[in-house]
Write a structure and sequence with these properties.
Layout (H helix, E strand, L loop, with lengths): L1 H19 L9 H25 L5 E3 L4 E3 L7 H12 L3 H14 L7 E3 H19 L14 H13 L13 E3 L11 E3 H5 L2 H11 L2 H15 L11 E3 L5 E3 L1
Helix pairs in contact: 3-4, 3-5, 5-6, 5-8, 6-8, 8-9
């Protein structure tokens, strides 16, 4: 956990360095860089405030109708997805409020079928990064009342996705039901990214919880894909998770 926190802190420092230090790149002056920084901040808050006003606690905001919509799982997806950005912007008030609300209200024991890939990169990743930030003094965003609520949610969510990895190749199904596991009619075809890019989030979770299963299953998925590479070390776009045959090369 200590190493993960240090990595998080270094990423934050690098991000703020690009904002704050007097640097020039490709003819961009310090003043112009700060103006661009402010534009990025304003764009984020335009989107975030719009979501909170018109869509929260649903997953996403439909920009034309200004209505909310549950598109992934029905657990305030955009709020979870925004946690690390709020922290990077130094918004202690909103970051703290979001962490508290998620800890008190989000649960994953729901009859929802979700994308393994999207849920991993957006929800599991969002919870883990926010956990590291909220629990470490060195980030400058530590929440005194925080008691690992996001980590517990992340572990629960990951456990509910484990049935997706129960395939002959080790490559996971594309979707899984958070309450019932993989549906018997679930497609055996999945995207390469759905099996080959999950090690970061599951690996961090495994090390934070001292449970190697999370990291091992995603490494097995990567090995399952790599073992089926072409003679010139290329992989296809979609693969059958049972037969290991590429359905789109």
């Amino acid at each position: 956990m200590e190493m993960s926190a240090k990595v998080t802190m270094l990423c934050q420092l690098a991000f703020f360095a690009l904002w704050s230090f007097q640097i020039r790149a490709d003819g961009v002056t310090t003043l112009e860089a700060r103006q661009l920084r402010d534009e990025v901040r304003d764009m984020f808050y335009h989107a975030f405030d719009g979501y909170m006003q018109h869509a929260f606690p649903l997953d996403e905001l439909r920009p034309l109708s200004c209505q909310g919509e549950d598109t992934l799982g029905g657990y305030a997806l955009t709020l979870i997805d925004s946690l690390d950005t709020l922290a990077l912007l130094g918004d202690r008030e909103r970051f703290g409020a979001a962490v508290e609300w998620i800890g008190e209200n989000v649960r994953f024991d729901i009859n929802k079928t979700v994308s393994v890939f999207e849920t991993t990169i957006r929800v599991l990743g969002g919870l883990l990064s926010a956990h590291l930030i909220a629990s470490d003094y060195s980030t400058g965003m530590k929440i005194e009342s925080y008691n690992d609520e996001l980590l517990h949610l992340a572990e629960d969510l990951a456990r509910r996705m484990l049935p997706a990895f129960e395939t002959p190749t080790g490559i996971p199904f594309g979707s899984v039901n958070l309450l019932h596991g993989v549906d018997e009619h679930e497609s055996k075809i999945t995207a390469t990214a759905g099996g080959g890019t999950l090690t970061l989030e599951f690996g961090v979770l495994g090390r934070l919880t001292n449970n190697s299963v999370f990291e091992q299953i995603t490494k097995n998925a990567v090995r399952g894909i790599w073992a089926r590479r072409s003679k010139i070390n290329l992989v296809g776009a979609h693969i059958n998770v049972f037969s290991g045959e590429w359905t789109q090369k």
